[in-house]
Amino acid sequence: xxxxxxxxxxxxxxxxxxxxxxxxxxxxxxxxxxxxxxxxxxxxxxxxxxxxxxxxxxxxxxxxxxxxxxxxxxxxxxxxxxxxxxxxxxxxxxxxxxxxxxxxxxxxxxxxxxxxxxxxxx
Length: 122
Description:
- This protein is mainly alpha-helical.
- Helices cover about 55% and strands about 10% of the residues.
- A 3-stranded antiparallel beta sheet has the order 1-3-2.
């Protein structure tokens, strides 16, 4: 298990990742999980499928996503396909502002930590 001090507990970034992925095209849940795994933040680790599906449901309940049952071909069992809503696109735009501020805050925090560690080592 990854320690949260190594960035292994950043589940709140699932939302902007999922919104970004679905802003490009609709996908089945497993396809979303496969795309998340490719993102640098996930460090080539497969996201917990149960957690992702739970989050997809939450985002659908919040109105950011919609889903419908579709069959990949005529012989296959229908599966849920997710797509982003207009409200989801609005939320994705809001994430650009929030993530921009997070990056400024994180750079400041890293600098403060480095200053403290540098003073302790002297």
